[in-house]
User: Fold this.
Amino acid sequence: MPSEKLYRELRSLDRKIHLLLSENKRLRDELTQSQSENRILQSRVESQKANLDSVQNQMKMSKMVDNMIVGEEDSAKLKRQIDGYIKELDKCIAHLAE
Assistant:
């Protein structure tokens, strides 16, 4: 009798060990899969950050270009100012050459 009881307990423990080993393997596989998925997602995040930086730089450049665009009237005024500066520089050069 004690031998049968011991045998049943041993079988019960053996079953529990197999269940635990099986659960352990399943959890390890799940962990490996989750780690792989995590690496993929981190790569995507880095890629999205790079894309975001690129878009932000493009937006900054676009704003700078928009701010640089001047109308015809402003362009003519700017041209007159530059011509005036050139004439003043020519006078200075001529004066220094004497």
Observations:
- The first helix runs from residue 2 to 68.
- Helices lie at 2-68, 72-97.
- The chain has a mean pLDDT of 88.
- DSSP finds two helices and no strands in the chain.
